[in-house]
Amino acid sequence: MQVKNSNTILREDWSVFVILILTPLLLYLVSAILPTHDDWASLTRPTFESLFTKERFFFYGSHWRPFDSIIGYVAGRHPQSLFPAFHHVLVVIGHAVCSLSVLRLLKVLRFSAPARNLAAVFFFITPAAMATVSAVDSQNQVYALVFGILSFLLYVRVKRRKYILWAVCIFLSALWKENGLMWALVCPLLAYGFDFIDRKTLRKDLLAGIIIMAVYALAIVLQPKDVAIHPEYVPDLIKVMKNMVKFLFTSFVTVDYVYLLHQPHRNLLLAAFTFLMSLPFLFCLLHGNAKVLAGKKMLTVVVCLMIAVAPHLFTVFSMMHTYAGLAMIAVMVALLAESGRHRRHLMLCFLLFVIDAVAIDVHLIGESIHSGLVGKSMAVEAVTKTGKPVRRVFVVIIEDDYPKLSSFCVIPSEAFGWGLAARHETNYQWPQAISDTTLLRSRHARDEAMRLGMEKLAADSFDCVWIVDHEKVDVLQKGEGGNQQSTTDYK
């Protein structure tokens, strides 16, 4: 009898095995991605202070993310072996857990096996997730969603101590990343939309959710902290409108972003091909589903989707932040797939989508690998040309006109981490201090960089100057007797 039940589970939830089979392959692919850009500045980078510090567990700068800081502490124990390998393991395993959580969510919402399996696989492989899955510092986004989904499952399934467990999960989600707090509103709204609670309970629990959010805000206010609000986080109408366009595009349009948006790699023919490959699946989902699109459940999910991504829409939105709304998008896919009349056609179109999505995913990961290798090459060049350990380095960056695209195609100077990649290359032995400045690109930018570098050395402020021009790193440093030596092409 037990074998029969097991076989039934195997047939019903086949997406579990698809996810488990693809997870090691995905981990293998992303493991070659090296840190770039924000990876060098986030709390998850290797840190060497004591575990028990105020900054590690309390509000610091503009974030309260203790889990990020703990990851950075762990990476700091063996930085060259754990950074970024440890981070990739956390992200990919977290994405797999999140995909399985989406499957469980859809089961609780009473979707049929075909609809929930299709939506779970969609969540796992969609290119909209790749900016998160292929990033080094995106554990916070992944686990914020894991605990957000868990908060809903506890909210609708647990009777005793329901509000305590719900609040704990929301706090854990928010301590991974601030947008996790929005599940305090998403949970009662989604439960109401799928008839788990009535309108009276909805009003009561929305108030409870607001109280949870207020307690979180009060906890921040009461902490000893230095608040630094980055200008990018200040909302304005134009920014919100641009962010909304980015959100709609990255969430609902399946296309190879690199071929479409990144000028050096632009290939509109291939971009159009990847888009057309996904259209039959989209058509099958939408065809004949006008009532579903206008129904209570769909409208509720749309509201929940907008709430989930609202913190990013009002501050900073990049492709990575699409992940915050992907669980709700998976529910939308399941709703449309559930009511589809031609299930066989839908599955054939979905297979075409899978082939398309996997091809796009591999290409996006490949470009991320290339960006990381550029940064490493620059780091090796800087260390090799410097030739010996130095304590203080000044980095002069000539502003790059090279376009970027999210974390897939990164500007070389950002892949270089403004010099921090070189510090990683020396296993954090040197330099101890790095400062940087950026010069506008012009005909005289190289001469200006050389002059500024000489001034820094003459003032005895720094032991060495690295001049970054696109992928090239040149070195100015003090020689014996205080003379300045150059390993640059500047004349």
What can you tell me about this protein's structure?
This protein is of the alpha/beta class and 491 residues long. Helices cover 61% and strands 6% of the residues. It contains 22 helices and five strands. The chain has helices at 2-12, 14-30, 54-57, 66-77, 79-82, 85-108, 113-125, 130-133, 139-157, 162-176, 183-193, 199-222, 237-252, 257-261, 268-286, 290-293, 296-313, 326-338, 343-386, 412-415, 420-425, 445-458, and strands at 392-398, 433-439, 464-469, 472-478, 484-487. It has a five-stranded mixed β-sheet, sandwiched between helices. A hairpin with a 5-residue loop joins strand 4 and strand 5. The chain is globular.
What is this entry, summarized?
The chain is α/β, with parallel strands linked by helices and 491 residues long. It contains 22 helices and five strands.
Q: How would you sum up the global shape?
A: globular
Number of strands: 5
Give the fraction of residues assigned to helices.
55-70%
**Spatial order of the strands forming the largest sheet:** 2-1-3-4-5
Contiguous uncertain segments of 5+ residues: none
Distance between the termini: 83 Å
Total DSSP helices: 22
Radius of gyration: 25 Å
Secondary-structure-derived class = alpha/beta
Overall average residue pLDDT: 91
Give the amount of beta strand, in percent.
5-15%
User: How are helices and strands ordered from N to C?
Assistant: HHHHHHHHHHHHHHHHHHHEHHEHEEE
Main sheet, how many strands, which sense, barrel?
5 strands, mixed
